[in-house]
Write a structure and sequence with these properties.
With about 350 residues, the chain is of the alpha+beta class. Helix content is about 30%, strand content about 15%. It has 2 domains: about 240 residues, DD-peptidase/beta-lactamase superfamily (Beta-lactamase), CATH 3.40.710.10; about 100 residues, Methane Monooxygenase Hydroxylase, Chain G, domain 1 (Up-down Bundle). A hairpin with a 2-residue loop joins strand 1 and strand 2.
Length: about 350
């Protein structure tokens, strides 16, 4: 049931926006959650997961690129806290083979801010597995001088995920489970969701529910630093509350307050783009926020239609989970995001 959607409350408009977008076939359904001052003030599911099956508020979605900020960026910050890496170190210090073809000076910070100069994705599909992907990336040559341009690239976070594994000695799924999900009580979050969750898994496209949509992550085995994560709105709300609480939740500390501040501090990048370490703040990818949140806010979106946005000034967070690619592969989550962001901004103005 929706919470906070009463007469006179701007959040009441969220339902109308969601139903309109479903009627237009932009999305088949959506789970929308809004939190404020540490509490959920709006939580509702609209539409269907499959034809004739109402979407559940606890549905499990393919998060796509939210993987970058829920797993990979915080894992890198944890390793930094532990003294295992420094943000301005060259990647090649930890993975010597990465230095080939002009990549020797690319830093971890440049990967996090998408200023490495690497292309957006792998061009070749003549490979298989994580080792195959990393071999392809090792052979890549930057398409721009490192540090000179903002180029949003999945390759950046595939490399970061590989660094997490190299420096921790654990697979990325195991690291995330032990150091992020379990401490935060995110019981419904992980890579390759178990069959027991079948009733809650939302189809993403033509792939079977629970199979990652992203082709590169799928070819890598389903788990990568850029995509592959599945979760619910409730679990993501716990993650958002942890960040707004300076890195801890219910007695479990995931990050230091200094790490949270560093990760979410705005950096002015080439082309007028403003981002944090992993997080988006002001770019073409965040245009849907439309000024609804403060300049200090940050978030991310996913190709499948997912989005989250966090405003530390108003102590508010917004989570939108939808599967815009189902069933025809051509849905559009942007109007839904814009409408919901507008309602949240009116309810909790920056």
């Amino acid at each position: 049931m929706p919470h906070g959607g009463t007469a006179g409350n701007p959040l009441a408009g969220i339902g109308a926006t969601a139903r309109d977008e479903i009627a237009l076939d932009d999305v088949p359904g959506a789970v929308i959650l809004v939190g404020h001052d540490g509490k959920t003030v709006y939580r509702a599911a609209f539409g269907t997961s499959t034809p004739g099956t109402p979407l559940r508020p606890d549905a499990v979605f393919d998060l796509a690129s939210l993987t970058k900020v829920v797993v990979t960026a915080p894992a890198i910050m944890q390793l930094r806290e532990a003294g295992r890496l420094r943000l301005d170190d060259p990647v090649a210090l930890y993975w010597p083979g990465f230095a080939r073809n002009g990549k020797g000076r690319i830093t971890i910070r440049q990967l996090l801010t998408h200023t490495s100069g690497l292309r957006p994705d792998l061009v070749s599909t003549n490979w298989q597995g994580e080792a195959g992907a990393l071999a392809q990336i090792a052979a890549e040559r930057p398409i721009a001088t490192p540090g000179s341009a903002f180029i949003y690239s999945d390759l950046n976070f595939i490399v970061l995920g590989a660094l997490v594994e190299r420096l921790s000695g654990e697979s990325l799924p195991l690291y995330a489970q032990q150091h992020i999900f379990a401490p935060l009580g995110m019981a419904d979050t992980g890579f390759d969701p178990p069959p027991g969750e079948a009733a809650r898994l939302v189809p993403t496209d033509t792939q079977a529910p629970g199979i990652v949509q992203d082709p590169t992550a799928r070819r890598m085995g389903g788990a990568a630093g850029h995509a592959g994560l599945f979760s619910t709105a409730d679990d993501l709300a716990r993650f958002c509350r942890m960040l707004l609480n300076g890195g801890s939740l219910d007695g479990a500390r995931i990050l230091s307050p200094q790490s949270v501040a560093l990760m979410t501090a705005p950096e002015a990048l080439p082309g007028g783009v403003i981002r944090g370490l992993g997080w988006d703040m002001a770019s073409t990818y965040s245009s849907w926020t439309g000024g609804a949140f403060s300049p200090a806010s940050y978030g991310h979106t996913g190709y499948t239609g997912t989005a989250l946005w966090i405003d530390s000034v108003t102590n508010t967070y917004l989570i939108i989970l939808t599967s815009r690619l189902y069933p025809y592969g051509n849905g559009d989550a942007m109007p839904l995001r814009r409408g919901v962001a507008r309602a949240v901004g009116q309810a909790f103005p920056p």
